[in-house]
Fold these 4 entries.
Entry 1:
Amino acid sequence: MGTSQAAKVETHDRILEIAAARIRRDGAAGLAVAEIMKEAGLTHGGFYRHFDSREQLVTEAVQRALARGSEWTVASGELGGRQGYTKLVDGYLSGWHRDHPEAGCGIAGVAADMARDEGAASDSYTEQVRKCLAVLVDLIDGPDPRTVERESLLALSALVGAISIARAVDDPTLSDQLLADVAAALKDRTEP
């Protein structure tokens, strides 16, 4: 790859990282191309050297947001068993994750946007949900596969719901309580 082509790939990647962080923090609907390009140190006109449209940027950025936001979920899964499950729950329902949505789980960050999307971004969202459920299935013990599947669906729903509500409420005490109590309840459900 030539120097100019390598620079173009690096710039494209920088734009995607900025857009993915913004999407996790603010959602996809309000993604402003001019703001993304300015943060990347580029002009608005340079956008079309990297993307055909805003829709292409959103699709690629949602894919990046989902992949980046799930890296630590996958890492928790690699620990396996109770240790991995505890790490996943405690990390997901932490004050840090609540306070840094731009670096957090894309599933929680873009759920409302994906409910209204019918394109490639929605397909990516569905696939990422399946991947996270697969991690949870591997971490949860149960008497039979159907019970484990149900517990995984419940756990993912509780994680995403609790972090979303904890971010939305304007009462810090209630926010902290949501995170702590849902984490405790999820861990209690999977006691050996």
Entry 2:
Amino acid sequence: MTRAELLADDPIWLILLKVLFIFLFALLTAMITVWAERRLIGRMQNRPGPNRVGPFGLLQPIADAIKMPFKEEIIPRTADKVTYRIAPVLALAPTMIGLSVIPFGGQVSIFGEQTVLQLVDLPVGVLVVLAASSVGVYGIVLAGWSSGTPYPLLGGLRSAAQVISYEIAMGLSIVAVILQTHSLSLGDIVDGQHGLWFGVALFPAFIIYVISMVGETNRAPFDLPEGESELVAGFHTEYSSMKFVIFYIAEYINMIVVSAMGATLFLGGYMAPWPISLINNNYFNTGWWPMLWFIAKVGLALFFFIWIRGTLPRYRYDQFMKLGWKLLVPVSLVFIVVLTVINAWDSLGTTGILISLGFGVLLLIALVMMIPDRRDPRAGRVPLSGGGFPVPPIDLQIPSKPRRTKQARSRAGRRQTVAAGAKEGDDGVS
């Protein structure tokens, strides 16, 4: 039976069991990722991280989950109350939808029922994940607008510009995968990687996707909507208690979704890595083993998120936009044309793979060249007049000594007269 036929025969209790698994998987993985991030970045910065609650601080996320509901909830007087309350839910709900089409494994038997470790395999599964991640940004934008204060609004506007810029680059990187598999179904994309994974065969698209997924999730070094040095805390400045926790969880579940999507598209999905897949007549690609490989690949991608957060400094806003619009989008378009020519000339064989890898090396060189030289004091400076970057122009010339109006001069003269009279009176008394 095919994947679609097996999923169509699932009884209602099995569907509910899969829904429960996806919900628990998202929450538990988010909690573990929070703990791992605090511990790993602590080690990178030569400090212990959480180590008080439980062994190695493992129970710290549970302690935070118990503490946060009892925090005082403060709603700004200028907030739009309805939108203010809906925004966190709107940020969290689409992330769960994105996980519903991800294949976690192959065919297994659950309580005697043959099924596939996937909730639903849609013919347009790729578009469902992209749409869910795009809708999630509305929660951030509405949270910034409904707070009624300037810094959250700026964070929401930044997030809107960010998701538009990097959603395009991410979509173009996925087009390369679709050209190779001729399908938008995530199950078919995994089946198309039985030989060479697309992370190697389509190396430039893989690099672009990795950069775009960091920008899509508002993570460092692309966390411009949450720039503490500029926007206090960004779009969620005015949120507290459980509403803040919902935004926090939504960010980490969104990381899980794009990591699972990247593993499915470019890292072979739930299939075992190369030499393990050759052992014992492909034994490690059957049964429940594929689910283990898939979770390991998602964990590796989440470690990458943590690693770059503890390593790279935050980009400036104009550098961030320049990277998306002037490098990632044009390179994606050029690579799609090159890949189309290769497929029209011949299938993606050894020659096509070598061309793809060479293209990826050129992309890496371009990325390195875009990093400003820190030794040059003029590197990366933005002219005050704008200089082509999206910053407000400063055309006014501020005089060294501000001009004093006639009214100001008359008021200053009256103050001097009163002060002189008071001084003479004091002298007379003495």
Entry 3:
Amino acid sequence: MCRHLGYLGPPRAVGEVITAGSHSLRDQSWAPRDMRRGGTINADGFGAAWWQGDPGSPDGVQAYRNPVPMWADPAVDGVLGQVRSGAVLAAVRSATVGMPLERAACAPFTGDGWALSHNGRIVGWPVSIAGLAEWLPAVELLRMPALTDSALLWTLVRRRLDAGAPAAALASVTADVLEAAPESRLNLLLGNGTTLWATTVYHSLSVKVDETSAMISSEPIDDDPGWQPVPDGRLVEARPGHLNITELGDHL
């Protein structure tokens, strides 16, 4: 399992976004509170994506990833402390047994102006999902950033983003994966620099939105009473001044 976080609001240092709060994403890498028997620590790498310039541009998103624990990388306070953005998506990783420990396997995965993170696992990987992967063109499978369940989810979502709305892409992918591999945990977090979308499938998620900022996180990063837990089986759409939480099935 993993932990992830998305932020939209006034420009801040990327390093500040992922270390701010009494229970920051960095704290969650070594002391998560709600892993739901999905592990005890998130020490298998981390990543952060941020948008600069035109968020809608295919080249608008940049990313930093490292397969070491977040707390062990001085770049979090160094390099990432110097980069400012009003849109950040970050994650810490707890690798499923048997999956590679490498930079390319660390979320968020980025491309064409999008960034995506996955908190959870596909049960029975890779056999359970082989039938669904067969529908992808061979070239897309060969271009997967890593041989992991999260990278396959990114590949599936990215293809469906070309064909429809983000909410529909996330809902259809989660539905198809659950049909092939029931009881998989599929909390996805997707951003394009202006809006965040997230799913809750058997894992924790909270959201906090006001008129100037929006934040989605696997666990609240502080004790602010504005945090709202998201029930299971939901799809969240958030940006400053806007929050919509609906049933996942409403988007199929």
Entry 4:
Amino acid sequence: MERITSEVIAEKEFTIASRGYNQEEVDTFLDLICEEMDRLNNEIQDLRQKTTMVRPSAPAAESSSVSKEDENKFREILEMAATVKEETIRKAREDAEAIRLKAETEANERLNGLAEEREGLEKEVTALKETAVEYRRQFEELLHAQQEALEKATGLF
């Protein structure tokens, strides 16, 4: 499984489905982010437990300054990890919301375009129906005129 980093999140591209982004793909990616965050939390917890176990076994006088130094380093690492975690989650949420808004906007634009296209087609159909009615009327008039001409011609013979 690929490790989730802020670069991976920043570079992640989702494919666009017919009605926006593929929801399953977005959900899967967000699940991966959550799993990675859980893993980081577990790792932080393990490190905290290890530092707790190391403290009591340190010799009293000589290594206490080294132990404090190590403890400060561990604290700093844990704080950095927590900061990275929070920033990654915040960025992932922002990206997910931006993706959702973009997909929603694109879907609305597409629906509006389709509604306009439908209106245009309905007008065309109405115009074609009117034209068909007019052609039929003209054809009936022509047919009637031909019938009258035939009747007159029949009287001549």
